[in-house]
Write a structure and sequence with these properties.
Blueprint: H1 3-25, H2 31-46, H3 52-67, H4 71-88, H5 98-101
Helix pairs in contact: 1-2, 1-3
């Protein structure tokens, strides 16, 4: 394994995760970004440039940098928003497609 290739892979992965999370934070569709990144990571795994654990750790780090909370901490907030909308009868919340609400 070439160290320079591995470093380049992680630099690009970090930027791609940042792009995904920034788009999500701005309520923009990040589907294309996510799919591109999934393919990129899969290629990195096949070429032995990374392990799944390393990628997961990098993703957690970038998520923390962008949102200020871990991925696990952010998910319950979304569930709380949905429950609050149901409780208050705020059906506008459900007008947005679910795949957009859960980004």
């Amino acid at each position: 394994m070439n160290y320079a290739q591995r470093e380049l892979f992680f630099i690009n992965s970090k930027q791609q995760f940042s792009d995904i999370f920034q788009a999500s934070k701005a309520d923009k569709d990040n589907t294309d970004l996510r799919l591109r990144t999934q393919g990129f990571i899969h290629a990195g795994e096949l070429l032995a440039l990374c392990s799944r654990a390393e990628v997961q750790q990098l993703m957690e780090q970038v998520h923390q940098d962008v949102f200020g909370v871990s991925i696990a901490e952010r998910k319950p907030k979304e569930q709380t928003r949905r429950q609050q909308a149901l409780k208050l009868g705020d059906y506008d919340y459900f007008d947005e497609p679910a795949f957009n609400r859960l980004r």
